[in-house]
């Protein structure tokens, strides 16, 4: 089985965000970058598919030079190959999808795994976009996956329940928490990964379809009325919810 | 005149509120153009109601290949419909269905796509969308540069508004041109969590965190939830500890919600949790640590022990 796992590097969730001098992107100074948390599931699923069906797992990332770090993580976890496409545009998931599709076209994967969302631009759309560009099936937010021959059965989380979805290979899936339990890379593997080759490919130039005009930090419009826990405070809260907020 | 297409979803006999919100948002950028709806796979819902929100026409797409929901066949149907009416913009509610469908339709229409919008405006004739990024820690305004634009709208952020004296909606049929090749994915079964209201569809959510100390104390959350007719939510810590099912988790690795009222009980307010609920209309925090970050996003807060406050609050609301 030929497996492509697509991962991204994002600011650590707990990092403070400041707007950069361009007024459109974040200031990267002092920001700690990590493997997108959903992509731990992405890589793990690729490895599990290889363990079950044999074949090759290729990890792909598209981003700035520092993104190579997460390819080292993927190599340490056990992927066979790593591909890096340098392209720093983050605001249009379309150009990322075009690059993924381009790499996929050169290797004809049976399964492409992406994360449910990348926690920077939170677009949720990558599996659908890549699937559409390649004319392949796609299933998003997958919490359970089984493949028999060429038939794919997946569970996906929906409002108030789960959908059971059927498709055939080749297929793109986006990994949700719960899909698997990601392994931690072992120290010797981390050391070995440092010297493994990373294939670099040029970005497929595509005209961006969206343009970011401005980024700002949202100002809190919250009332911020903090009360104590006395009976009269609790009565006051109920009154405020009734009369001021009018939500109950 | 431009035409805006709104993808409509129904639940049982009703058009979903998130779809009605999308109609109102579309009216806001239509500038005299018409807003038309598409509902796929036939429906038993009361689509006449969409007229009250200003929908000009509602097309019901039917085809034998649409009897079972298929992402790819529905995407083909919506794209064909958008082309048939010469749509300038296509708007989806960012529901689980809309989030998966909109990007496919955008690719088919060679259109730019902006997901999870929390505002749509028109400036100098262009649609400007606002959306949260970096887990809600920042927001960006974005413009689409292609002829057609595709947007998905975060549910319960826009307000659905009826229009006085609106004309009745014209109900039409739409017959898409589909082949078996369009059916690459199908839903074979849906397993519903019976009897529980889902956080992603609730007006009020009462959520519990580590401050509850153990699953045996969750009845405090459930009692308050019951009085308010609320859905029950949970923080990641509580789900990871196995106290509550993942379907209840609000936050980055769970669901993103924007209810009218969100009550966070014994939740400290890690940024991962805030990412999932900070667009709620009114936030109430109950926590014994007055420095807990949850108070920074709260409209109203009670500094106190949940074991003491929750029974009192529930009793007050019962009367």
Task: Describe the protein in words.
- The complex is a heterodimer of chains A (248) and B (319).
- Chain A is of the alpha/beta class and 248 residues long.
- Chain A folds into 2 domains: 2-201, 3-Layer(aba) Sandwich (Rossmann fold); 218-248, no CATH class.
- Chain A is built from 6 helices and 13 strands.
- The model of chain A has no long low-confidence stretch (mean pLDDT 94).
- In chain B, the strands form 4 sheets. In chain B, strands 7-11-6-1-4-5-12 form a 7-stranded parallel beta sheet, sandwiched between helices. A 5-stranded parallel beta sheet of chain B has the order 15-14-16-17-18.
- In chain B, β2 and β3 form a beta hairpin.
- The radius of gyration of chain B is 21 Å and the shape is elongated.
- Chains A and B meet through α3, α4, β7, β8 and β9 of A and α2, α3, β7, β9 and β10 of B.
- β13 (225-227) of chain A pairs parallel with β18 of chain B.
Topology:
The complex is a heterodimer of chains A (248) and B (319).
Chain A: E1 2-7, E2 9-11, E3 33-35, H1 37-53, E4 56-63, H2 68-77, E5 81-86, H3 93-107, E6 111-115, H4 126-134, E7 137-148, E8 151-158, E9 161-168, E10 171-175, H5 187-193, E11 199-201, E12 210-216, E13 225-227, H6 231-244
Chain B: E1 3-7, E2 10-11, E3 14-15, H1 17-30, E4 34-40, E5 57-61, H2 71-84, E6 87-93, H3 96-108, E7 112-117, E8 119-123, E9 126-133, E10 138-144, E11 149-153, E12 170-174, E13 185-192, E14 204-208, H4 219-228, E15 231-234, H5 236-240, E16 261-265, H6 271-277, E17 282-287, E18 300-303, H7 306-318
Parallel strand pairs in B: 1-4, 1-6, 4-5, 5-12, 6-11, 7-11, 14-15, 14-16, 16-17, 17-18
Antiparallel strand pairs in B: 2-3, 8-9, 9-10
